[in-house]
Amino acid sequence: MNMATEPNKFRPAASGAVMSEDELIGIVKHLLKEFGHDTAPLVQKIAAGTATREQIIRLGINFQNFTRITPNVLGTLYSRCYDHAVRRKIFDNLIDEDTGMRCGDQPHYELAMEFITRFSGMSWDEVVNHPICYEVQDINNFRLRTAKEVPVAVAMGAFGLAGEAGFSAAAAAVSDGLREHYGVKDEDQVSWIVHIEGDEEHSEVAEAIVRKLIRKADDQQLIIRLCAEYLDRWQYLYGTAEDPNFKLKRSALREFEQAIAG
């Protein structure tokens, strides 16, 4: 389904006027319906047991390199936030990612490293020294740049709604597929399991922040655009794991722009 053929879904954004909370969240949820993590072909293949081990290894390496800089992203947001309640939520998320105190018993990047080393048989040093593909570098640069330059509530909303809100379902599908079809024990795939419930909590926090703080039309337009850009970059993260020569067939950003252009 091409979103440009569904103008009613985006009419509130097309007008340029301030949207209601529900209108804004509804647009982002429609983007997730069309381009969400659990719609990625590789996620569906792992769930069905048709993905190759090489594809899963590439996904594990991509995800480890993604997870490794998440504390830097959150730390940047934390340093820029002057709302105490929001800052505390960022801190809780940072604790989840960079310690073993709340969500899992190790930092999440260490859990991601444990999965890929155990599944692939690669050593820790081999994974660390493995070339990082351009697409993962790009999504990480996007995250760091957004955390540094975009209003904190907008950045948190984009990361939480377009990232964590959809990722929990994908993590569950991957986890179930690994267990059922590839013989991976739960203790060897904790990096996927911790994101099932943890990312649901983070996405709920993000939605609450969006509803509370994003009131200006310009900020509303910006968060929709960032969500679309972020979802496109996630398509590349999954796609290059499935096929290193992956080409984007549908762009969330392009279809959103077409839809609001009328």
Entry keywords:
262 residues, mainly alpha, 13 helices, globular
In short:
The longest helix is centred in the middle third of the chain and has 30 residues, at about 150-180.
Shape: globular
Task: Give the terminus-to-terminus CA distance.
Answer: 16 Å
Uncertain parts? none
Largest sheet, described in full? none
Order of helices and strands: HHHHHHHHHHHHH
Q: What count of helical segments does DSSP give?
A: 13
Rg (C-alpha, Å) = 18 Å
Overall pLDDT level: 89
How many beta strands in the DSSP annotation?
0
What portion of residues is helical? over 70%
Residue share in β-strands = under 5%
Structural class of the secondary elements?
mainly alpha
Task: Give your account of this protein's structure.
The protein contains 13 helices and no strands. It is an all-alpha fold and 262 residues long. Helix 5 (70-80) runs antiparallel to helix 6 (84-98) and helix 6 runs antiparallel to helix 11. The radius of gyration is 18 Å and the shape is globular. The model has no long low-confidence stretch (mean pLDDT 89).
Please describe the topology of this protein.
Blueprint: H1 11-14, H2 21-35, H3 41-48, H4 53-68, H5 70-80, H6 84-98, H7 108-120, H8 124-128, H9 134-149, H10 152-181, H11 190-213, H12 217-242, H13 252-261
Helix pairs in contact: 2-12, 3-10, 4-7, 4-9, 4-12, 5-6, 5-9, 6-11, 7-11, 9-12, 10-11, 10-12, 12-13
